[in-house]
């Protein structure tokens, strides 16, 4: 099983960051790669579309409001992986109440691609996503 993790310091309090990204259907609010999210099964599943119209279906597998993190599994996607589970976490930065650290990590099995290729793919998605989040919060 392969994995990757990206962290980024963002210019907002952990509570403000979580209020933006903590909803399972909130990706279109901060992630340009996902302009559309449709909740299914009472909000436990989300049907996403990327700008090319490709569909990604994900299931919420863990959610912790107090600790500000959630995990999800990909059920269907145009990515060369299986067994994908990812977690988004918001951490406090000691002594900096208007700053937070956001960590986006994932583990997965390559399928039809090398481990390096899929690690690079998701590292790029996480890095670009956290950059977009930083830009949204800095605006």
Summarize this structure briefly.
With 139 residues, the chain is α+β, with helices and mostly antiparallel strands.
3D architecture notes:
With 139 residues, the protein is an alpha+beta fold. It has 2 helices and 7 strands, in the order βαββββββα.
Helix- and strand-based class?
Answer: alpha+beta
Strand content: 35-45%
Residue-averaged pLDDT: 96
Uncertain stretches: none
For the termini, the CA-CA separation is 38 Å
Main sheet properties: 7 strands, antiparallel
User: What is the number of beta strands?
Assistant: 7
SSE pattern, N- to C-terminal: EHEEEEEEH
Q: Overall 3D geometry? A: globular
What's the helical proportion of residues? 10-25%
**What count of helical segments does DSSP give?**
2
Topology:
Blueprint: E1 2-10, H1 14-21, E2 36-40, E3 45-49, E4 55-64, E5 69-76, E6 81-92, E7 100-110, H2 115-138
Antiparallel strand pairs: 1-7, 2-3, 3-4, 4-5, 5-6, 6-7
Pfam families: Polyketide_cyc2 (PF10604)
InterPro entries: Polyketide_cyclase/dehydratase (IPR019587), START-like_dom_sf (IPR023393)
Protein name: SRPBCC family protein
Please name the defining characteristics of this protein.
single chain, 139 residues, alpha+beta, seven-stranded antiparallel beta sheet, 2 helices, 43% strand, globular
């Amino acid at each position: 099983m392969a994995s990757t993790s990206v962290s980024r310091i963002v210019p907002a309090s952990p509570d403000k960051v979580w209020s933006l990204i903590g909803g399972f259907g909130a990706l279109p609010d901060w992630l340009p790669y996902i302009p559309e999210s449709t909740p299914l099964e009472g909000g436990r599943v989300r049907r996403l579309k990327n700008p090319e119209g490709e569909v990604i279906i994900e299931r919420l597998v863990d959610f912790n409001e107090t600790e500000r993190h959630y995990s999800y599994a990909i059920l269907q996607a145009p990515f060369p992986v299986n067994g994908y589970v990812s977690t988004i976490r918001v951490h406090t930065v000691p002594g900096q109440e208007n700053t937070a650290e956001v960590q986006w990590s994932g583990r997965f099995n390559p399928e039809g691609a090398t481990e390096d290729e899929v690690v690079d793919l998701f590292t790029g998605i996480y890095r670009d996503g956290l950059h977009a989040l930083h830009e949204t919060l800095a605006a």
